Amino acid sequence: MTDVEEVQVVVAHHERTTLRVGDVFLKIDTDQTRTDVEVEAMAMAPVPTPEVLWRKPPVLALAALPGTALGRLGEPSIASSAAWAAAGAAVRMLHDAPLPPWPGRNLDEDASRLDGECEWLITNDVLPADVVTRNRRIAEAALRPWTPVFMHGDLQVSHVFVDGDEITGVIDWSEAGQGDALFDLAILTLGHEEHLGDVVAGYGADVDLDVIRAWWSLRSLLAVRWLVEHGFDPSSPGCEVDVLRSQAAGR
Description:
Blueprint: E1 7-12, E2 16-21, E3 24-29, H1 32-44, E4 52-56, E5 59-63, E6 68-69, H2 81-95, H3 107-123, H4 129-139, E7 149-151, E8 160-163, E9 166-170, E10 177-179, H5 181-189, H6 196-203, H7 209-229, H8 240-249
Antiparallel strand pairs: 1-2, 2-3, 3-5, 4-5, 6-8, 7-10, 8-9
C-alpha cells in the first residue's frame, strides 16, 4: 500500500465509514456484530466475495474486487443484459445455499415502522399524501409469510461487481441472514425496473412481480427519513422519492 495517491471516502455516516486506500477497502463500524455477520456470511456464501485481508476491530480490511459495479441508484446502468442476468443467477445460487444460523430481516419490525414513516413523509411535506397512501397500499403485498432463504439483505446494485458479462463478486454482507428471496431481487432492481426481466430470467424461477414492486415501495418508504438524517439525498433523480412517485403513478 505504498505510494497511494489518495484516500477515497466511499461512504461515511455516524454508524460506519468505508475508505478505499489503493486496492484495499477499510470498513470502520461502531457495531462489531455487523462485522461479525459480514465476515461469517462471506465465508458461507457460494458466490464470489472480497478477500478478508485482516481485522483489527473496529476496522475490517478487504481486498478490492476486479471489475466495476453493475450500476448505481439514480444513474442508468451501462452493464449488459447478460450481466444483469448473471446477477440474477448469482442471487439464485445464494438463495439455494444452506441457511445461515442467525436470523435475518424482521417482518414485524418493518410493519410496525411503516405507519410512522408514512406519517413523517406527509408531515414534513416530502411527498404528497396521495403518493404516500398509494405506496402504503402497494407495500402491504410484501408483508406476507415467506420461506426463508440465505438473503444478502442489502443487495444494492452498487454492491454487485461485474467484468463484462461475468460476476466478479458481491460486497457489503453485514445485513445477511435468513429472509425473503424477493427482498433481495427487489433491492437489486430498485430504480432499475428496465432490468427486472433480465434479473428474473437469470434467477430462473417463478417470482411474484407484484411482491417485488411492493418491496420497492416498502423499502423506499422506510428509507427516506434515514437517508435524510444521515446526509444523503433520496430526492436525487432516479432515487427513492422518484421510485415512490413512479410507483404511485403505476409506471
